[in-house]
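ping. complex inputs:
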Amino acid sequence: MKHLLIIGAGDLAETVFDLANRELGVGVAGFAVHAAHRSRSLVCGLPVVDLEGIEESHPPSAYDLFVAIGYKDGNRTRQRLVRWAEGLGYNLPALVSPDATIQAGDLASNVCVAAGAIVQPYAQIGTATLIRAGAIISHHGRIGEACYIGPGSLMGGRVDIGERVFIGLGSRIRDGIKITDDVMIAMSASVTKDIVNSGKYAGSPARKTA
Amino acid sequence: MKHLLIIGAGDLAETVFDLANRELGVGVAGFAVHAAHRSRSLVCGLPVVDLEGIEESHPPSAYDLFVAIGYKDGNRTRQRLVRWAEGLGYNLPALVSPDATIQAGDLASNVCVAAGAIVQPYAQIGTATLIRAGAIISHHGRIGEACYIGPGSLMGGRVDIGERVFIGLGSRIRDGIKITDDVMIAMSASVTKDIVNSGKYAGSPARKTA
Amino acid sequence: MKHLLIIGAGDLAETVFDLANRELGVGVAGFAVHAAHRSRSLVCGLPVVDLEGIEESHPPSAYDLFVAIGYKDGNRTRQRLVRWAEGLGYNLPALVSPDATIQAGDLASNVCVAAGAIVQPYAQIGTATLIRAGAIISHHGRIGEACYIGPGSLMGGRVDIGERVFIGLGSRIRDGIKITDDVMIAMSASVTKDIVNSGKYAGSPARKTA
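pong. complex structure:
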């Protein structure tokens, strides 16, 4: 693998650095953020550069990228930047912890799977989706692009989840459930029926709250 | 291990195939279902044969069996077929994912333990019980015959669970709880008191619903 | 490592014995309890000696200690005995299952991490804290002294937990939450706000119950 430039400089970027550098032994060149958002010059001891101009400072011929931007804007910025970087010719590798268990086939670009997570047989994970520690994607499940699958969340068999969906810490999705795009499932929620309208859902069983 | 014939041809059978074949390197001969239920001729690229007559087509001298039938009939068919197959002289091996953690002694026949599951020290697991991904059976626990222990479910220390009990995805059983036979614990339930009557239980704390 | 003397003789001591002896290959000399509490002469086949007088029978020059006393008194006895033993010059090693994932730095004295547990990058764990199977301490989290982190419990990023806190089986703590000292979070609870008063909390969202 080429050296890696991480886009983002927050907590998620720090955990991606740890995964790439310590767990996987990938050389990390540094971090990149929009000039207007740059508040630190060093993260994890490495330089933070302006995102504007990385095509020259860190060209796709020499660097891979990973977009480590979280869910606070509904996972939109991460999805947009991954598409932008792919358009520029960058490779955005999947980063999988050696302590995760992947039983499905190849993972898409800019997917991150943290320690203890399990992706069961015949499951599919979309580009730019982040799977946090201990989450379980059961057999035949489908997770769309740019989702955030929170720590310890549980998805039963054959779930079908759209794009930019947030699955909160410790929430549970019943077997066979479909969830549309742009849904936020709160921490500890339990989803027992299909979700066909975008918005926020919470509780056990989960109900629409916003 | 001899070649394995899997009884069943649904999602569970496919996941058992993946466990046996890909994870454990066991040769799988195919699948067997009752002739009346046979809707596909191939599953995972292997033949589906009639269950009637396997004593001749796949005799116990040449084949092991694994009964991969789920919980929809209250775990009764799996228990019955395991007993029937044992009566015919078949060996029904325990199949344990290399990514599971078994800290107890030998496992009984036709037990399946998926990736990420943990069976702690001094625990006992009954014949024909299925333990799904990420489930935890804590120390000194006892799980009876033909149970289904759902993904990510958590059992505290010294739980004592009867026969044909279904433990739903993400449900939690307090330390020391006893549960009688033929109980169904719904997804996400939290069991805080002993259950002495068969039936369905849901909620947090769990209450009888049927 | 020197031979280990385990203080305590209950279920927790048995699981610590299994971790030290079977998982880690540490020689265990036996168990020690206050003479007034000694009800068995053998545990796991090894002698139970009086805690009074271990400085002579099992001096710090020849033995390490691990205090395997649970949470029933609010984690006070374990904390007190660890401090007492450190004062006598004993080494109290951290015991970490080979099936746990530690992504943070060195662990403090008398910490126990069971199989399947995950301690993420940049997290800190205090002396005498017990982390049970499958629990997840997310990135940048801080757990104080003498806590008990129950099986399958989930802590989001940057949680900050005080001393002698009990986190029940399957409970979940939101990102960034602070919990003061001497708090008991019941099984399956979901903590969504800071807890500034000691006491018992239960439910989803968690509320004070005692």
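The longest helix of chain B spans residues 11-23.
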